[in-house]
UniProtKB/TrEMBL annotation, chain B:
Name of the protein in its database record: ABC transporter permease
Molecular function per GO: ABC-type transporter activity
Transmembrane segments: 21-41, 53-72, 105-129, 141-164, 171-194, 250-269
Superkingdom classification of source: Bacteria
Organism: Nitratifractor salsuginis
């Protein structure tokens, strides 16, 4: 069988949208301990690749395994192990309290532990719990999503440009939090600003036109 | 299972805060209010006739606005969730597609069904206060008909939302379905009937396949046992099926049809890309 440290295994994956090939024969392996900066120009296919790992897209060719499972057929098994932050905070209409309730019930992560994480980024969850999520400021939304993802203690963390709407101070807090993760995990940070992640990542994957063009340890 | 209820519960909470829900509840509540003011219940003989006339008028308005309300708000909310990436985020948690889809369905059902049924019951209560007699059979049948109308259009709305990715196309399609069922089918059938080229059996079958026709017939069958108002189609049906079968058909056919569409939608939801 395969190495139990391998968290993500992408094997010759192809994905087309309306005739256009967006992922072109992509293969890669990510193991526990890997912290990947994923880069590449707009439209390179980074978000698409990540969405395939999360089971949102059916691949046209090839296979993907996350935590040993197929993301489409066994989505619950896969998503149990994944913490995800989307590229843009979604305008969720649930209140903060309801969102935390949803997270707690569906993934078993306690609302208190999320509130604690949020507190470390100077976001007071209790104060805003009656507010619809989409009415929080951009940075507050981002902080809450980060708090949720980190509190879940997932084996695989996927961040699609997580710091886009954070002020410099919040960005510092965020990196500190990432550095303080004290259990074994793998992480993928999609970013256009690699220099910010220096010291945090140990591997760099660059995509262009749907292909992996660089994959090296740093 | 626990996540199904969770999704339904949160969907209801969300609806209760949304503007469309208030417009929706206000329209049906307001409708009843309008009936009271206009004095339908008081007209001529109070009692059975007054109250049942009120209920019948209520049903006639329901048949027009309920379907379009359900279609538009449901398609808007589901494809809106997808377009704004809410769906992406919510489905990044370990929750099965089955629980998500049917949970949403359940939540939606509760929010579209209750305002209408509550308005109906308020009308009944008012009629009783005014000294009428409670037309039990009618209230029961009408509640069942409203339930089945909600289910069939929810099913169609869920099917459209999973079939079509784009918000605008989904809304356009909903509107087309509504107009088609509400008017075009009847108009086309009348045209065909007048040309006399197609057998009555075919025409009647096509008419029967329209869930709105089923609703219309069911709503009037109690009130006007001879179905003279509706004309030849209903009369023919009454003649061949009998009254009991006709009512069973009016209630259960739309439910079955809604179930089929909801299941088709569910299959698409699982088989196609989610985003
Ligand atoms: N659901 C979809 N339907 C059709 N085309 C899509 C879909 N999602 C992505 N694409 C196309 O796939 C290509 C890759 O998009 P993707 O979002 O993966 O890029 P990206 O690398 O994340 O870019 P960015 O840095 O701008 O976020 C783009 O050309 C995009 O238009
Ligand atoms: Mg992207």
């Amino acid at each position: 069988m395969q190495d139990p440290r391998v968290v993500v295994e992408v094997n010759r994956v192809r994905k087309r949208f309306m005739g256009a090939t967006v992922l072109d024969d992509v293969s890669l392996q990510i193991s526990l301990g890997d912290r990947v900066a994923m880069m590449g120009p707009n439209g390179a296919g980074k978000t698409t690749l990540v969405r395939c790992m999360l089971g949102f897209y059916h691949t046209d060719e090839g296979s993907i395994r996350v935590a040993g499972h197929d993301p489409v057929a066994e989505r619950v098994e896969v998503l149990r192990h994944v913490g995800f932050i989307p590229q843009l905070p979604p305008p969720v209409k649930l209140t903060v309290g309801e969102l935390l309730h949803f997270v707690e019930r569906s993934s078993g992560t306690s609302a208190e532990s999320i509130a604690r994480k949020a507190g470390e980024m100077e976001l007071d969850v209790a104060k805003h719990s009656q507010k619809p999520f989409f009415k929080l400021s951009g940075g507050m939304k981002q902080k809450l999503l980060i708090a949720i993802a980190l509190a879940r203690k997932s084996r695989l963390l996927i961040f699609d440009e997580p710091t886009a709407s954070l002020d410099p101070r919040a960005r510092e807090h965020f990196y500190e939090l990432l550095q303080s993760i004290d259990y074994e995990h793998a992480a993928i940070y999609i970013t256009h600003r690699a220099e910010e992640l220096a010291g945090l990542v140990n591997r760099e994957i660059t995509m262009d036109l749907g292909k992996v063009v660089v994959d090296e340890r740093i | 299972m626990k996540n199904l209820l969770l999704v339904a519960y949160l969907d209801i909470r969300e609806s209760l805060r949304s503007k469309w829900f208030y417009v929706y509840a206000f329209v049906f509540g307001g409708l009843m209010g309008l009936f009271f003011i206009s004095g339908i219940t008081d007209s001529v003989v109070m009692g059975f006739t007054g109250l049942s006339r009120l209920l019948l008028v209520f049903m006639q308005v329901t048949i027009i606005i309920l379907p379009i309300f359900i279609l538009i708000t449901t398609v808007k909310s589901i494809s809106g969730d997808r377009e704004s990436n809410i769906l992406e985020y919510m489905l990044s948690f370990p929750i099965s597609l089955k629980e998500y889809y049917w949970g949403k369905f359940m939540g939606r059902f509760v929010t579209v069904f209750f305002p209408v049924i509550v308005a109906l019951l308020i009308g009944v209560a008012w009629g009783l206060v005014k000294g009428g007699e409670l037309p039990w059979a009618m209230v029961g049948l009408y509640s069942a008909l409203i339930l089945s109308l909600c289910l069939v259009f929810l099913g169609i709305a869920f099917f459209i939302s999973t079939l079509v990715k784009s918000h605008d196309v989904g809304l356009g399609l909903s509107f087309a379905v509504w107009i088609l069922l509400l008017a075009f089918i009847d108009v086309a059938l009348i045209g065909l009937m007048m040309q006399n080229r197609i057998s009555d059996g075919v025409i009647i079958t096509v008419a029967m396949l329209n869930p709105l026709e089923a609703f219309r017939i069911g709503a009037i069958a109690l009130f006007d046992p001879e179905l003279t108002v509706i004309g030849p189609v209903a009369y023919y049906l009454l003649d061949t099926l009998g009254r009991k079968m006709l009512m069973l058909y009016a209630v259960f056919y739309p439910i079955a049809l809604g179930g089929v569409f909801a299941l088709l939608g569910y299959t698409l939801f699982r088989k196609k890309d989610l985003l």
